[in-house]
Write a structure and sequence with these properties.
3 helices, alpha+beta
Length: 180
Amino acid sequence: MPRTLTVSRSILIQAPPAAVYEEVSHPARMGRWSPENLGATVIGADDGTARVGMVFEGHNKRGAVRWTTRCTVTEAEPGRRFAFRVHAIGFKRPRLRGPIATWEYRFEDAGPGDAGPGGAGAATRVTETWTDDRRSWPDSVAGVFDRIATRGHTFAEFQAGNIDRTLRNLKRDLEDRHAA
């Protein structure tokens, strides 16, 4: 059976699209919500604004294993879309180069939202998508590697769970802060 190469999940967040984009488009903040990512370091000048071509190193942890990825922003449309490509990986430094994955976040205006007491007044449908860019790997090799790296799952199954947790954590964090 061919492997699943793309997984997407969505959630409704009671906050305006621009506010959600502003948080997600700062890779250093991802560690607040992701079950694996510990944050990121932008390479070069970082004025706080995501832009196409911006490079960052993502710091990650699964169990006792830690690794670093090198990523490049491929889309940065405020309030609409943020995406990056993961193209190098390593333990302390990302030395092994090649296509690994693409992550994308879409922000859709979902109407007025909850404007009641403590409501944000606007809602955003956030869709997070993971795409497996290891297209040159035979499915059988990817399947064995994935089950070792994820303790028994394919990367698609594993990432679906990670995306669900990330989106729930993002929702909780942003709604709490926007209601305050």
